[in-house]
Amino acid sequence: MITFVEKSRELIGSLCKWFSIILLSLMTIIMVAQVISRYCFSSPLTWAEELARYQMIALAYVCSVSVMLDRAHLRVTFILDKLSKTTQSMLKVPVLLLQAAFLFLIFYYSIPMLKEGLRVEAVSLGTSMFPFYLPITISFFLMFLESLIQTVEAFIKAYKLLFTGV
């Protein structure tokens, strides 16, 4: 049976992947338009590079959520692999708790930055920086939640391994 958490993970992962596809497509279209405008018409779009830069940053944060949901981050495990399964399970919980704490701190301190984004203006775009700061806050919140979920799963696995041997 698929649980609420699994359905939520699927939905968030799907939304992140589609948002990334749309963002990358828009960025490509804008940059092609910029090249055509600059070299064919000798009249560059003044806002294109700035918007593409912010889109690339947003893309990195949104894709980080997808990578975390897929558990596809790069890991160096040659020392961990030498330990027993029980020890590995016991070490995983505090490591994931540290990760969750770190992600929460970044999320927490991104909120004032988000509020500041309402006052700060993107120079060539003439708009608030809020929509460009928003993916940072949302991404770190989602990664924090996923880290908590992974911590609970690791704790349950360690508990079962320690006390039932399964």
Secondary structure: number of strands: 2
| N→C terminal distance | 21 Å
What are the segments in which pLDDT stays under 50 over at least 5 consecutive residues?
none
Class from helix and strand fractions: mainly alpha
- Give the biggest beta sheet: 2 strands, antiparallel
Shape estimate? elongated
Secondary structure tally, helices: 4
Average residue pLDDT: 90
Describe this structure as you would to a colleague.
The protein has 4 helices and 2 strands. The chain is mainly alpha-helical. A two-stranded antiparallel sheet has the order 1-2. Helix 2 (48-69) runs parallel beside helix 4. The model has no long low-confidence stretch (mean pLDDT 90).
Topology:
Elements: H1 4-41, H2 48-69, H3 85-119, E1 121-122, E2 127-128, H4 130-163
Core attributes:
166 residues; mainly alpha; two-stranded antiparallel sheet; elongated; 2 strands; 4 helices; single chain
How would you concisely characterize the structure shown here?
This protein has 166 residues and is mainly alpha-helical.
